[in-house]
Fold this sequence. Notes:
Layout: H1 2-15, E1 20-25, H2 38-41, E2 46-53, H3 56-59, H4 68-94, E3 99-102, H5 119-125, E4 130-131, E5 137-138, E6 146-153, H6 172-176, H7 189-200, H8 212-225
Antiparallel strand pairs: 1-2, 2-6, 3-6, 4-5
Amino acid sequence: MKEKNYQFLKSIAASRGADLFGVADTKLIEKYIYEELKNETAKMPYTVSIGIRLQRAVLNTIIDRPNQIYKTHYRHVNAQLDGITSFMAGEIQRKGYNAIPIAASYIIDWKLQNAHVSHRHVGLEAGLGFWGKNNILVHPEYGAGIRLASLFTDMPLTDDSPIENDCGDCAACIAACPAEAITDDAFEFDKCYQMLRQFSRENNYGVMICGLCVRACADARSKTQS
């Protein structure tokens, strides 16, 4: 039953454009769940993580700051992810189970950059990647060039396991970061946040994105695969 349900949801995600799919034990990411959800998510032992790979050609346009094509692509992929989790939740409900889809990009606490759940930590526990030096989930092949969304459910599912990997000696994101927020030993959130705020005010972006470490990481991972 669990494996059948897992494959059912995975096929839905893939048919609607998801590149990545995994399932985490909700207990493992409990501390990253926003308080207003916890009464319901306590009844939902499984958290689904889905991901879509960002277009390499779009990432290639990012030179020293975010641009409009990256902004629009970022938003389009987020919307696609939201559509997938919403459709998946409907299919789960039709089978008699409960689900809560979580938007790919909806910030509750802007200063701390917190959402209803940390998609990165869900993806980590679901085996979609490892934790990067840039404080972002890094897929073994696509690097940080992915966007994620999550869904809580009580539909019985097979759990995935975290992958054992890390950045190793790669320092591509360190060299690329305009805020100098990344080192081999630490990530300075405040420096990153201030740079995001600065970029959000430029050229009518109106969204807190950067993309420089994402491109650098994706470039570095693609070289290791070739």
